[in-house]
Structures
1.
Amino acid sequence: MKKKSLLFICTENSARSQMAEGFAKNIAPDGVLVLSAGTQPASETHKMAISVMNDHGIDISSQKPKKISALKRYRFDLVITLCSSARENCSPLAGSPPRVHWNLDDPAVNIDTKKETKKAFRECADKIKALVSDLFNRGYFEAFATQKKNTENILNHLSQGLIAHDLKRKIFFFSEGAERLTGLSEIDVIGKDCHDVFIPRICGDHCSFCDGSDYSGSEVKCHSTINPGMDGNRKELEITVVPLKDENGKMDGVIACLRDRTEFKKISDALAERNSFSSIIGRSAKMIDVFEQIKSISGYDMPVSIFGKTGTGKEVIANAIHDESIRRDNPFVPINCGALPEGLVESELFGHVKGSFSGAVRDKKGRFELADGGTIFLDEVAELPKHIQVKLLRFLQEGVLEKVGSEKNIKVNVRIISATNKDLKKEVQKGNFREDLYYRIKVIPVTLPPLQDRKSDIPLLVEHFINKMIKTNKKNQKNVSKDAVNVLMNYSWPGNVRELENVIQFAVIKSTGNVITPKDLPMELTENIDISLKRGPSKKLDTNSVKTTLVRTGGNKAKAAKILDVGRATLYRFINDHPEVVPDDL
């Protein structure tokens, strides 16, 4: 059974609270823990308090003044303050115990003689003794403890998590549900700034207590957010924030209700049978792996490094990571490091002050400052000059930057996502990229598959690009013939998704009818591929003819398809269904 507990608080914890602790320990029932503490405790218990308590037959000489912070592991059932300073300045305590105030004058002030001092201490001790007696003998303490237990039982059995903080964002209540959802312990968060506990902050861009904001409204706010769970898995949370007001209707804090919507989100996504994720088109196994990786890392705020060949959509992936993160309501600022003139890279990234160089006619914010609170995407990061790599490393280590021509440090809060089509490890070995920076930016690596490895996504991408083209240029709806799809599926796509989009734009413009055929595609896609444009059923293949033809062509499937008078895609499908047709020596 949980032990009941009582705490007396006075600023110095040397007289009034020590005497109260002594009287309470003397008459409290077995199983009740009694302690006292101070906001600014003295070095020792007041000697006159010890003397007066001895007159009552109670020895408090062994009681030493304690600081409230030293008792943060306790969950008290009742807290009693004995001076106005303690009442106003006492920090929140675990479990948010009820508080009672005994407004007792300090017996140690404004007394001229020792005789008068002792008289004041005796009068104070008598008042405390009477109050402590009523607290236990009239059942007040038991009533407070029972009420607190009943309230906790109700709140802690809710599936939702409850967090409450004051107007300075200091947390004073953290339910067991909040512990389950966030993986944090009540003892570790009570009394701390909400923004110091949750990094990045759980409220995202919806906080009403930032930058001097005065949240005095009565409206209830609701928003979604993302938080990594205890096991490191992403949690989709719905947060409802309700203002708290005192007996006079004055705002004194908020309470946030956290609901776990992770499973609901998974089910709704599965029912929707989505072919895309955060504007990324694809349902191939490799792209689904990428989608899952984005979701798993979005709850964290660490640097991400994306590797992919030119045209694979690195910026789209970076944007998706941003949109799925807690920073999604803040700016996403992309910059192509390889496209910047070397002399302007530093200014573009970090900004400059007026007069710092020729042409600097005014102060300018850099991309990092513009992205404050959000995400900056450094595309082709391997192209950064060495001296800029040094500044970027410092920013990653300390979170501060210097504008060109300035000696002041600016603190900026951004998440860095970088991307490159080069092997950064090889660039380190060549001396082109700093090794320490390499390990700093590659905390979470993401690799994108080339289009050649996700060809099952091509039909989806084609449909997406056609719709995009039609919407932008107000063209009529167009379909793609099966022969044209075969051409697209058999092409190697060295330019990846970007090249495919260009091809579709070309085909939509070139085609005169409502159907895109092979003749509407660029020449480089069709010049080496034999496509039968004849109507009617395609030629049926059999294992003997395919095996004989493959032997004849030495395993060249393109030549075999020509001899068999079928499309290459048709032959590939047949071989996949009948792998025994491929001779063992080929």
2.
Amino acid sequence: MTSRHWQASYGSVPHEINADAYASVTALMEQSMKRYADRPAFRCAGQTLTYADVDRLSRDFAAYLQTKLGVKKGDRIAVMTPNLLAFPIAFLGIIRAGAAQVNVNPLYTPHELEHQLNDSGAEIIVVFSGVSATVAEVRPKTKLKTIITNGVGDGSGKVLPSPPVDARLADHISLADTLAEGAKLAFTPVSSTGDDLLFLQYTGGTTGLSKGAALSHRNLIANVEQYKAFMPPELINEAPVIVTAIPLYHVFALMVNFITFFSFGADNWLVPNPRDFDAFIATLKAARPTVFMGVNTLYAGLVSHPGGKEVDWSRLKLAGGGGAAIIGAVSEKWKAMTGIIIHEGYGLSETSPVVSFNPLWLREFSGTTGLPMPSTDVKLLDDDGNEVALGESGEIVVKGPQVMKGYWNKPEANAAAFTADGYFRTGDVGVFDARGYLKIVDRKKDMIIVSGFNVYPNEIEDVATGCPGVAECACIGVPDEKSGEAVKLFVVRAPGATLTADELLAFCRNKLTGYKMPRHVSFIDVLPKSTVGKILRRELRDVK
């Protein structure tokens, strides 16, 4: 084990947490539903569910799963829906029936969905009507037996305008109907333990087909307790109001926005489509959040949209960022607009997800991902597997109660994913400073080597984003006859900007040493991104 030198910066944060503070996530959520029964739990599309409503509806869904579909402990059920009221109802019903949830991106292609359904062995799927055609396309090639569809209003008791269900799914049943039927059925509580499977969280599949990170109840309880340890009591005790624009099927929102803040009794405003900025801004205006979580692209959009300044941010106590590096220039604009910095964290699907986070007492953007969580050990290793000296960069490897036991049915991948002494290999390159703050320099495979020197894209992007007229940017390495590789920068101009390549390079030249300077600049309309807003550098390799 390392010395955990970061603990000297903890202040009042405990060094260890109890990963068995609750028997299961189910037990934690049921406690919250009773404790906060009268409080609003979720709002969406003008409808509100209290904690008591969520308790009743998830119980009814669990009863339907048990009685009508024969769901038993350990079964996997897929959920493929955006941030609608159906999501929390389905999730809580699934875990109350003792099953595990397979989180599916609603924007998946048929190829991606087919792989995930077959890999997980799911026989039941809850799917938003608007993407039901994808399910219809792959159904004959999977083990799916039951299709439960949901519209915008399902769970609210209201029928709201929704896309039609694909005609090929003639035998589907609506979530609203399962709830109505389940209300008449007996429910048998299922006792889950910390070791039981909670989620199959599929990784992005940057190399080949995606793998399912098998996350247990204990993994998530541990991460909730770790995250809670970094939160000041007043943030927890004052009935937080959180706006959830990042997708719940992604482990970041699932753990932080949903499970953790549900355990605090939060009022959670769900945003189904954050790309509809007018509707998104309207939700922020109505909610006046005390907590907001986002990725860099979401924050960049809010600070550049005129409506961002019209939101009352006076109650905001925490703005958290993750999923990809938060750019310093974006955090500065955010602080100018709201009065507080973005507290960046770091994590992965395989770590439930949080590994490190910037403590809330910080008042200035640190440019790091913060301190490792309590009960978490982080080492930085060189290419030979040796721990590097403080201040040197190395691959981040992690051990802690939030780390998955392994990938679903992937023994070979698991052998490669862990060191001999049980640390998970993240594939990310990081460096610790003397205080124990962890900075991500980059993914190993994204590193650019120019004339033998290592160049990390995040650094170049951070500098270039500070140039007036740049909305966002990303860089990759391209072949170069002289230097082996050269830096190519893709830039999206800010609205109305007339920035030229020469102007941008002149700006960068003052901040970057020669070998780090972009040799090619390409202006494009939009950067390729994943559904959680992470810039997909690998797709830029095909952009001319």
3.
Amino acid sequence: MTPELAAKPLTSYRKYWAQRFGPAPFLPMSRAEMDTQGWDQCDIILVTGDAYIDHPSFGMALVGRLLEAQGFRVGIISQPDWHSAEDFKRLGKPKLFFGITAGNMDSMVNRYTSDKKIRSDDAYTPHAAADRRPDRAVIVYAQRAREAFADVPLVIGSIEASLRRIAHYDYWSDKVRRSILPDSKADLLLFGNAERALVDLAHRLARGEKIGDIRDLRGTAFMVPHGWKPTPDWVEIDSRSVDMPGKIDAHPDPYAMEPEKKVGAGNTASAAATPGVHPVRLVSRADRLAERRTARAHTAVRLPSFEDVRDNPVLYAHASRTFHLESNPGNARALVQAHGEGASRRDVWLNPPPVPLTTEEMDHVFGLPYARAPHPTYAEARIPAWEMIRFSVNIMRGCFGGCTFCSITEHEGRIIQSRSEGSILRELEEIRDKTPGFTGVISDLGGPTANMYRLACKDKAIEQSCRRLSCVYPGICENLDTNHAPLISLYKKARALPGLKKVLISSGLRYDLAVKSPEYVKELVTHHVGGYLKIAPEHIEEGPLSKMMKPGIGSYDKFKQMFEKFSKEAGKEQYLIPYFIAAHPGTTNEDMLNLALWLKKNNFRLDQVQTFLPTPLAIATAMWHTEKNPLRKVTDTSESVSIVRSGRQRKLHKAFLRYHDPANWPILREALVAMGRADLIGPGKRHLVPPGQPGAGLHEPRKPWQNLPERRTTLATRRPLPAKPEKSPPLTRGTAAKAVAAKTQRPANVPRHPLSLRKGG
């Protein structure tokens, strides 16, 4: 890592005095447990909307154990009763601060479907109970903690706080809401992967610093008086002068030569005096980039105010574009956004994103003494999210795909942070030796994506100066190292461990990267697919794909050929299960019709479909709200994006994906007639839906398999039945699919990976 981005290692801090108590079997959730540990007080209390599971895939366990390793006494208040402040007093008053989170998922995404209906279960709660967390949990928990102990500093974090750190469109209230900071009354917001900021903050508070004076931590946001600057030498620029209507900063030319402003002692007087001749100096790449970083390090970009983006969709789209252009830790500037008017006007100040963890630091974080089990107070209660990940291993974090509908980039960033091979293999051995119920099958070896392990820019200087929103769209960057050899080596060593019968890969596969390495695809298909493999083309038409920043369907076709070839060579009958999104910005009825025809041609029958859900800060959400495209310069006359808003049209787009369901035939017949495609209504193979009177399809008899209860999530619902040789199978809930599911031991009704909102790659 270059010196400009060097950060203090997590393991270099002098431990707090309470280290003498040693690690707890589980972080205490009651005063009785504190007494057992010999504690009279917690230094830090973490409040979470999830059940407490002491495993590194769950955020509270990870940061709790990290703070414990620094010597602090950490308690956890899990899923408190938020109707009063009493439950927030159960562990007493924390000495340093409250850490408030909603849990591994955004509370609104967790509680509501894309159609704004309340979900009937919660995968992160014992017995999957659906009523254990409030809407906008971070705000509610912070208010109750403040009521309980008014003088204790409040620090908020998690994906819910990260995605609401500036003014943002809120899908559930259908309006632009201000930053979560003034609503929660928090002293500090930690966004992204917050290990660095959290550890440094804890030690500084322990030394007696006031939280209101801590303003220099990367990855933090806070409220300040309007016009505040860290030091007088800081420069503030208006975001509209950067990108609208002017152009964004050009990429620095590391080989550029520029005139000297003064004639140095080594320059000849004749050269300086000769008309048209200018002394020049050669500027190395490192020096050029260092000069730019020095200037940017003391520059803040002022975004349009909350009131401006609330009232002006063009300014909202512009602010979204600016926000995402300032997201690379190597060159991001501080961002400022005013909230309020007149005397009450204050600024939300965002420091640049955190410096990614090194491999050694990742190993430290994942190697802490986790109990790798739910807290004993849950007894034998079933917690679906735990059942999903207890036999899986997280090998990396981050994603450089930049899909506009995904929240991984806004939260974890684009730079891949990978664990070492040795660290991962040790965790596999721990699962084998210590996890009850292990049968020899590892359910996943991945993370936000399956195959970005150790992938990075070939040149660190280029990486730190880059402002691209994706390393793989519209094509794979020539500076991206796509070598899958480290991942292949990891797979081979993992499956060679004694006691491991099968190591499956279930995280979202980025197939446009995979096809760059036939050896990787062969290893994957031959040894790590449990009958079916889920991938996410999302669509086949250029219109929606360009708004998603996803590759064309040609990449899918190429991967499919390789998948079938290597499956045949291995003597295995295996299937690809594609994900598709309905009603994404930029999608027309014609796009969905073409996708339905493609599905029918390829004999796919999707059991469950995903409808676009606008999450805060995502680029696709900005498209949804503004009908503008922030991927390009935004003006009043810039590109407009078609949006599917009405409930009936969203239902139609979902119906196209499930063209085979008789319940959808009436709305499809009506739409086909309106689109002038009545030729697709009929009894033949070339037709999309059969003929019949409007509404008749709703009363047509269902097949026995169609009477099975619906499942709302997407883990094991898109499953194949045997079909004719050399053809993709239909996706139904047949007996063959059940056999595949039994082999892979995959739960059927919990989110695939608790660390992300989107499951596709």
4.
Amino acid sequence: MKILLCSVPDGALQSGQTPLIPRMKSNKEHSWSGKDNEFPTFPIGIMRVLAAAQKNGYDGEIYDINNLRHTDEEIINNLNKVKPDIVGLSGPLSHCYPNLKRIIKIIRDNYPKAWIIVGGHISGSSHILLHKTETDLVVVGDGEIAFNKLLDYIKQNPNRLEKKYDELEKIQGLAFFDAKKQIKLTGFGAQIKGTDMEYPSYDKWQKGLHDFGSGGELIHEVFEDADDLRNIFGLNLEKQHYTPELLKIHNELKGKKVGRIQTSKGCVAKCTFCQRATKGYRVFGHSHMEARIIELKEKYNVGVLLVDDENFGSNRKQGYECAELMKKHGIYWSSQGARAKSISVEDLKFYKAHNMLAIRYGIESGSQTILDIMEKKTTTHDVYEQIETCKRIGVATTSEAFMLGFPGESRKTALETAKYNAQLRYLLGNDWNTAYPAWATSIPGTPLYEYSQQAGFIGTTIEEEEDYLYRTADTMEDRGILNYLNKTEYDLKEVHYWLYLYRYAGKKEYVNEIIRKNWKYSKKPIKNILSQVYHKCVKEAFKSYKGDFKKRIKTKINIVKKFGEFTHISAKFAMTLGVIFLPRFILYPILKLMSDVSFYILEKRHKVKGGVQRYNFFVDRRKDKKVISEFEFTKEKLEKTARTIDRSLRTVVTENENIAQVSLTEEAKNLQVLAKQQ
């Protein structure tokens, strides 16, 4: 059997054909290609699945479509090189759906007899895949064991049109149409023990990049250069990162590469917005990790590793072993995902002593109310303590990890988040310029998605759900609020205003923090206050104004548009400076006016009148009377909660199910299991 495993690009169809490798060096500062914020992705999932298949006597090829971003014609040419009997497609995010559907059609049109098997977190939308594409089977949960058993089945039953359903039902971790065209789910995939899991070799990936790409050693293109300071942290650069110690280490690392590695799989938490088909939390075996570290260092000149765990350090013993291995082999490293609740001050000191450069925490909100609704099981105090320790001992970190727009969000909670971020930024020694927040996205397989359907914000028909997947995938990051589907009890204008509060009220709080801290601790408070306001606020405002001017006043636009852009950036600049002096009772109404004007322009440019909306932001089902108030989580209901767990969106979803009391068919029960991937 000829087996081909493919990664799938995320994003809208047009963005799915901008190559990430080979890289197009756009300027001296940015070495990546395609979108400015998108780096090559390591297709760990399909590498693991293929490695497991090889142990079972099978073999195959890896076609990294995600990084190569090929056109339809190029995909067809590469399929013809293999002539596959089985194609496995990895959809690690729901945002892969548009390109997944596109690629499935290409495969089916050219290889009608080939088995098409889809895996990854997109399995939360298995019913859509099975109804709206030519997918044969979906692997739900871990794929190593389930895919091997599927290969055994297909070896004995090669005809995809003559499925033996009684045999397929014995394989744990599959979703498919049964003989009655009803969706059948055989549970979640059986899992390999963590200690038996290996970080796979890059050999097959390397060969695939060569054979299906443009030849040459494209594998080296996936590694970032350690010459760029930001790459060794995996964070956006901030003033806090330019310390003598970190700059000295950076100088040692020049000429080296930055690689990625995982030391665990899964997470100990169940945040209500997080898509997760993998169950539990498993740490990898010590010997496997060391072998891979050595290979990355010797074969690919890696001097820094970004640890891509969702939940690094939750197993303290294993975290320490990992740190010791890094130190032993002279590798510097940064943790890309950690829980503030899982790591102590002593842990941070140990990791720092063993070559840790940076750590990123999942902060999400500065409002304890919203953290409880998210079921983060952490507090703002926990996070503040961790950030303070990082600053004190010299571990790089970031405060820019916030989200707005969760059910239960209000003007009050948005302000709490803005103020909290300002306090963290000042603590870290950064300036007052915040990044834009993320917006809460309802992803299939999460309580947030379930709630969004229960309350009517997302439709429940296959067509409505597919439309939502298309809209959500459309330039997820760079269109900001346009991609946000309003799940709060407030109207769109109010939600839009929260963005202005987050940025400008955050700046106001930053100035207040300067005043508070210096008045309390400084021997020369007035001098220090004036100095810090000038250097961290005023100078940064002028820098931003200059940057906006260069970027937005383009030579090719006409004089009227130039004047409009000039007026816009000048008003923004004046407002920024006004933040320093204006009291809140004057500042906030002005911000609301600015927000409303901006909202009007946004609506005029992007809202479709009398047609299908392209962006989630303008899908206002409340206005269409499709929102079910009985199931909404409102401020009134929130105020009645007595315990923290009562505020969790998971509890809200369960209560709504009890209210509905719907009698479920067998297929509906299977769909409900898919909806509850956590």
